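Onboarding guide, step 5: your first structure request.
Type a short instruction followed by the sequence, for example:

Predict the 3D structure of this protein.
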Amino acid sequence: MRLRVTKFGEPILREAGHSVAEFNPALKSLAADMIETMHAEEGIGLAAQQIGKALQLFVVDIRLPEGRKIPFNYLLDGKHPPLELIMPLVIANPEISITDSTESVYEEGCLSFPNVLGNVTRATAVCCAYQDVDGNPHTLECDGLLARCILHEVDHLQGRLFIDIMDKRALKRNEARIKKLKRMSRDFLKAQA
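The system replies with structure tokens like these:
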């Protein structure tokens, strides 16, 4: 089932998520709905806060359309399985460590910020220890776009947003759109009350 994506200005986006404690059919259903929503919105990642839940949970699918190549390396539990076998990923209770602090700049977007794009500087490689939808532990080592996507989603789980670390000029360029989103969210929340 496709879910509504929260927009900037809704308080849930600033909430840190609680640990996922129960790995049950309800969690599997939520993860499946998040994946469906992410694909429908044409995103590569979606955090629980973006569908109104304060949980340490996000989904990622970084299989790019044919012809679009953004190189990245990865090892899942020390192996290199084909992306088609591991994507989409469901990541619960992630613990991140930076494995290469060299920084790179990339233009990021976010499903909670439609039509807002801006340069964000992030570390180039990470190691992510996490649990899958069944509660099994895994370790994902990655760099490039996959590392960036994981860092972006982990920020969501802590209540941080990409505009908090966006290049100042890009933030200024997007200021009107961001203010409009905040107004629309305020109006939406009033209508829901």
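Each response can be followed by summary notes, for example: The mean pLDDT is 95.
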